[in-house]
């Protein structure tokens, strides 16, 4: 992830208890999510997410197990695959770009698939442009970027 990106994790609909069980502290003391376990219960194929290709072009992935829409250094969607099933899903927004249209369309797809959006703190975030844009605009990397590019 580049400094100019904000990453959202997408998970299947789960209750709060299941989500809390999937989130653990990693060896660095940071929170991490075992979203693979959540996706294994949900079993979704790559074809169910073909709509991402209508928003972002299919890109060149760094791994045979990852399907990439968009560009890793810009706006993108990454689907990690375990055979024919999705095992992890995330999207990154390049906050230097005009991302409003892309974000709006991504939210529509995510809502239609009954999925949950997690912010970088692994907290559930409302599926609205306003809430997600607020998360992006208040992120430390955005504040830092604005400080570096715009000054005080």
Element layout with pairings:
Blueprint: E1 5-12, H1 16-22, E2 23-25, E3 31-33, H2 35-42, H3 52-55, E4 66-70, E5 76-82, E6 85-94, H4 100-112, E7 115-118, E8 124-125, H5 129-137, H6 140-150
Antiparallel strand pairs: 1-6, 1-7, 2-3, 4-5, 5-6, 7-8
Strand order of the largest sheet: 4-5-6-1-7-8
Rounded to the nearest angstrom, the distance between the terminal CA atoms is 25 Å
Class by helix and strand content? alpha+beta
Gyration radius, rounded: 15 Å
Major β-sheet profile: 6 strands, antiparallel
Total of helices: 6
Mean pLDDT: 88
Number of domains: 1
Q: How do the helices and strands follow one another from N- to C-terminus?
A: EHEEHHEEEHEEHH
Q: How much helix is in the residues?
A: 25-40%
Report the portion of residues in β strands.
25-35%
Unreliable stretches covering 5 or more consecutive residues = none
Describe the model.
- With 152 residues, the chain is α+β, with helices and mostly antiparallel strands.
- It has one domain.
- Helix content is 34%, strand content 28%.
- The protein is built from 6 helices and 8 strands.
- The strands form 2 sheets. A 6-stranded antiparallel sheet has the order 4-5-6-1-7-8. A two-stranded antiparallel ribbon has the order 2-3.
- Strand 2 and strand 3 form a beta hairpin.
- It starts with a strand and ends with a helix.
């Amino acid at each position: 992830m580049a400094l100019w990106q904000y990453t959202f994790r997408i998970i299947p609909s789960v209750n709060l208890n299941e989500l809390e069980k999937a989130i653990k502290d990693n060896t660095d003391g940071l929170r991490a999510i075992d979203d693979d376990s959540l996706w294994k219960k949900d079993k979704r194929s790559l074809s169910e997410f073909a709509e991402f290709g209508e928003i972002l072009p299919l890109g060149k992935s760094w791994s045979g197990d990852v399907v990439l829409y968009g560009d890793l250094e810009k706006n993108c969607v990454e689907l990690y695959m375990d055979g024919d099933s999705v095992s992890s899903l995330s999207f990154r927004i390049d906050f230097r770009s005009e991302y409003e249209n892309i974000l709006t369309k991504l939210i529509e797809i995510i809502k239609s698939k009954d999925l949950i959006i997690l912010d970088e703190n692994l907290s559930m975030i409302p599926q609205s442009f306003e809430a997600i844009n607020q998360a992006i605009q208040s992120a430390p990397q955005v504040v830092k970027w604005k400080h570096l590019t715009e000054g005080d």
